[in-house]
Design goal:
The protein is α/β, with parallel strands linked by helices. It has one domain: Alpha/Beta hydrolase fold, catalytic domain (Rossmann fold, 3-Layer(aba) Sandwich). It is built from eleven helices and four strands. It has a four-stranded parallel sheet, sandwiched between helices. It is globular. The two termini are 32 Å apart.
């Protein structure tokens, strides 16, 4: 998900991408967890890798985790970028009452529903031109217990005061996001002091895959401008 995007940042920063619980190569105990635990994981990882603070980029669920990380562990955040994400603690059904039930239903029918499911994450013309992206949704190797724990993440209550975020923050939305309405993502900036916003035209929910160059351009412009001000 972040290979091409991270590659665009690698000449400017040390880029680290990791697998969350029940994802990729990570192995974890079979206990339930939510955004608090996932944010604590991220903070512990930053410290374990020998860093005091990091520039944190979170997209979709990762953006909700990043919000909790920034409020519970502010000392670990240097700069914050929230991309195509939703406000932590707000029921997703209230954000997209028309599309979310269909999205969830399609997810239960993967891989047969891959094309329809993908249309919530990428524009239709992009899928037609890049049919290989459907492989993302047919190669899931989580077992039933892992899927159950992941599905329950947002059911665990969480309270987040975005007004407490002190790190310089950029909020990014794709104009064609069918899963999380762009207006909702951009509204997060209203609660975060001095937060900046950017909209990427023609991009859906998974901008780091669809147009990593455009997303990296917005992120680099933000980070480099903030660095210049600090200097």
């Amino acid at each position: 998900m972040f290979d091409a995007f991270g590659g665009r940042l690698a000449s400017h920063f040390t880029v680290i991408a990791y697998d969350q619980r029940d994802s990729g190569a990570t192995r974890n105990p079979p206990s339930p967890y939510g955004l608090y635990e996932l944010a604590n994981d991220a903070a512990a990882l930053i410290a374990a890798l020998g860093y005091q603070r990091a520039r944190v980029f979170g997209t979709s669920l990762g953006g909700a985790i990043a919000q909790v990380l920034a409020t519970r562990h502010p000392g670990r955040i240097d700069h914050l970028v929230l991309s195509s994400t939703f406000r932590a603690g707000v029921p997703l059904l209230s954000i997209n009452p028309g599309g979310l039930p269909d999205f969830v239903a399609l997810r239960t029918r993967l891989p047969e529903s891959a094309r329809e499911f993908a249309e919530y994450l990428f524009p239709r013309d992009y899928i037609t031109a890049h049919p290989q992206v459907l492989g993302i949704f047919t190669a899931n190797k989580r077992d039933a217990q892992q899927k159950q724990r992941r599905a329950a993440i947002l059911a665990r209550p969480v309270e987040v005061d975005l007004g407490a975020i002190t790190a310089p923050t950029l909020v990014v939305a794709g104009s064609e996001d069918r899963l999380i309405p762009p207006a909702h993502t951009l509204s997060l900036a209203h609660e975060i002091a001095d937060a900046q916003t950017a909209t990427i035209t023609g991009v859906g929910h998974v901008g780091t895959v669809q147009d990593p160059v455009a997303v990296a351009h917005k992120v680099l412009a933000f980070l480099q401008a903030q660095t210049s001000r600090a200097d």
